[in-house]
Amino acid sequence: MAIHHRARDTSLLAVGVQDLSTMQPMTKETLFVWDSLSKLLTAALALTFIGDGRLRLNDEV
After folding, report:
1. By C-alpha distance, which of 60, 1, 58 is closest to 27?
2. Full DSSP string of the chain
3. CB 25: neighbour CB atoms within 10 A?
4. d(CA 24, CA 16)
5. For residue 2, what pLDDT band results from cuts at 50, 70 and 90?
6. Is the pLDDT score of 32 beyond 70?
7. In the predicted model, what is the mean pLDDT of residues 6-16?
8. Residue ranges of domains in the chain
9. Is pLDDT of 61 > 90?
10. What is the pLDDT, as a whole number, of residue 6?
11. In the predicted model, is pLDDT for residue 54 greater than 70?
12. Is there a contact between 12 and 28 (Cβ–Cβ < 8 Å)?
């Protein structure tokens, strides 16, 4: 988790485990696989653009 204040990192925390089967702890250097998460972020961004009037559902992309 990163906590930002006025566009600066003020605190970096690593909590939990990377993999429940190995119980390897999370570190600040742990990398995440984004595979299907990119779909969620793209949908959220598209809905934000629709709400702002910058995109319509039937626009060609």
Report:
1. 1
2. -EEEETTEEEEE---SEEETTTTEEP-TT-----TTHHHHHHHHHHHHHHHHTS--TT---
3. 11
4. 9
5. low
6. yes
7. 79
8. 1-30, 31-61
9. no
10. 76
11. yes
12. yes
Token digits for 36?
A: 């299907």
Q: Which residue is listed with tokens 């709400």? A: 51
Determine if the pTM surpasses 0.70.
Answer: no
Matching residue, tokens 């039937």? 58
| Residue 19 token pair | 């993999």
CB-side neighbour CA atoms (13 Å) of 3: 5
Q: Do the Cβ atoms of 26 and 16 come closer than 8 Å? A: yes
Give the side-chain half-sphere CA count within 13 A for 25: 5
**Euclidean distance between CA atoms 30 and 11, whole angstroms:** 16
